[in-house]
Amino acid sequence: MGVRTALRRTLASQLGNPRGLMGKAVAKRLNKFNLAATTGAVEALAVVDGEVVADLGFGGGVGLRLLLDTNAAEVHGVDYSASMVDRARGEFADDRLRLHTGSITALPLPDDSVDGLITLNTIYFIEDLTTAFAEIRRILRPGGRAVIGIGDPEAMAKMPVTRHGFLVRPVAEVVETLEGAGLALTAHRRVSESKLAPHLLVVGHAN
Ligand SMILES: C[S@@+](CC[C@H](N)C(=O)[O-])C[C@H]1O[C@@H](n2cnc3c(N)ncnc32)[C@H](O)[C@@H]1O
Prior knowledge:
The chain is of the alpha/beta class. Helices cover 40% and strands 24% of the residues. It has helices at 3-16, 20-33, 35-45, 62-68, 82-91, 129-139, 153-157, 171-180, and strands spanning 52-56, 74-79, 97-101, 114-120, 140-150, 183-190, 199-205. α3 packs parallel to α4 (62-68) and α6 packs across α8. The radius of gyration is 16 Å and the shape is globular. S-adenosylmethionine binds at residues 15-18, 30, 34, 38, 56-60, 62-63, 78-81, 84, 103-105, 120-122, 125-126.
């Protein structure tokens, strides 16, 4: 294996589970690179004062910061990576923040406990998307909203790092899986006007 391939493979693994020294650098890059998409997701969520909200797979924590900037009563952050949870614990001194190490496929939150959530750039690392979306539906209160942010599949395919284990699915397939999990699409936004801009899928309970 060439050096370039080895580096890309390492980066791909870090993006799916940032950890150790390299994880710190990856977290900073994620915050910068995904700021616009995360800002768009929080805008689409339109948090109402006093709501309980969450960021699933928060990585470097840019989404937690934006959610803490609202008047949410509680902000939950769930991430698979204990390093990212520790980092967020050190970074945010806000007693509304609740951090959890855990997976989107087995969320450490009760049924009907969240009014709104965002999850960006996470589903590429999840094989069992049906279970992940069923978990999102389970924790969302009826009337609650979830914003799922994903890179445009064509743009993702142009990024060499995604060839190393990323599950890049067509948007239509993601929407179909959401619907299969009992969620209904209420809006489909793009982060910018570019043809390759990230997608923001806004969903709520189908019934
Ligand atoms: C590419 S980063 C995205 C971080 C952030 N949402 C953003 O857009 O900048 C993916 C994050 O999702 C987390 N992650 C991956 N699979 C997960 C899972 N099954 N459950 C929870 N977190 C997960 C990783 O640990 C990592 O922090």
